[in-house]
């Protein structure tokens, strides 16, 4: 009986031990991806955490729920809440997340797949030492060389965007923004190509005329002693072109490349001989009326035989064509070779067809019209 009682006690102990061991569970608890094995008799997730001295933050995420029952081999996943500093297109913000990598934060922010992340998408949040720097794609238009190029870019600066578009700037080109300016959405960039070139022009320098008196030649005669030659000057300009159109021209140099040579002309000063016939030498005031004498005084200083070489002759300053047209040729080839009365007779013919208007200035001055 004693042995039987001892056997019964031993059996009970063994059964109790079996039941105790049989109530244990081996679970896996993963915290931010790092798993640990836990043996427990806890019935719920909350009890497992309590037995394992694992505490939760208010914003931590746990799967399954705290009140969920646990079985042997179960896996409890805990994702810790984190505050991550993020810079998006130059704007700082704080993101609350339970993600583990930079990619998790980018996905949480629902950003474009083309977004550029400086730290790389696979970097663990636990390894971050600086804010996540993110550049989102932006539409940029670039007008240059007569064309507009559309660009969807994550470049942070204007200079980087131009480089991506394979558009270079010359040293004098003008851009409506600085290369260091931040790229913004729907940004419009305009480039004006500025070039300078040298332009050379030549201009004629007109020659002058030097006159010398010739006492052996009659008054009114002219003779060319030496032909004149025009000179030349070279003008050099610096021309500024903006998109191919001239916008400014500055004179850089002005040089005389060929000097002008003045013509030399002799002018006769010898008085003309008086006409042989009395009718052609008479120039006394009494031979013409006072009106015609006054008109001659105004036109030629009263010199009825003057020939100054300007194409007009005599006291009343006839042109050769007017003289011949009015019939003066019957007196002399040219007016200054005729007598004052013959010049007046021819002038009367002119006056009968056109009035005193043939001598507009002097006739007005004398009050003849």
Provide a short characterization of the protein structure.
By secondary structure, the chain is α+β, with helices and mostly antiparallel strands. The chain is 23% helix and 35% strand.
In the CATH hierarchy, the third-tier topology of the largest domain is known as: Lysozyme
Write the H/E string, N to C: HEEHEEEEHEEEEHEEEEEEEEHHEEHHH
CATH domain class of the largest domain: Mainly Alpha
- Tell me the major beta sheet: 4 strands, mixed
- Tell me, rounded to a whole number, the average pLDDT: 87
Q: What's the total number of strands?
A: 20
- How much β-strand is present in the residues? 25-35%
Describe the overall structure.
Mean pLDDT is 87; it is low at 12-22 and 276-286. This protein has 369 residues and is of the alpha+beta class. It folds into five domains: 23-79, Ubiquitin-like (UB roll); 83-135, no CATH class; 140-192, no CATH class; 196-268, Resuscitation-promoting factor rpfb (Resuscitation-promoting factor rpfb fold, Single Sheet), CATH 2.20.230; 280-365, Orthogonal Bundle (Lysozyme). It has a four-stranded mixed β-sheet, covered by helices on one side. It has helices spanning 2-22, 45-51, 102-108, 158-164, 278-281, 290-300, 320-325, 340-354, 360-365, and strands at residues 25-31, 34-40, 61-63, 75-79, 82-88, 91-97, 116-117, 132-135, 138-144, 147-153, 174-175, 187-192, 194-205, 209-218, 222-226, 231-242, 245-258, 263-270, 312-313, 318-319.
